[in-house]
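In the current project phase, we have settled on a layout for protein records. One protein thus recorded is set out beneath this paragraph:
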Amino acid sequence: MINFIIENGIVLKEETFETFSSKTFIGNEFYLGVERVDNNTVADVSYKFDLELGEYAEQSRTTRTEPLPPEPESDADRINQLEQQLAQTNTDLAAVLEMILT
């Protein structure tokens, strides 16, 4: 026989056999999930474990604006950017050294 129980906010699956029983950790009684709705919106969804259904049931849903992050740069673009920064740093360093030495 399989039963789900909640002990101190923790969901356990309890299986009873003829000679023994066991408990398996399922998760917390409540949890919050985040789902992407579209490119600019996400939904915060709260769930509670339903003992009768033996699964998590949605309790509430709140949407908020959160745009997708920009696409990552290619390796070649990043290398080019770092090379430009290095060239500028070398130019700045040469100018400082020239000021110090003159």
Observations:
- Residues 13 and 24 are 5 Å apart (CA to CA).
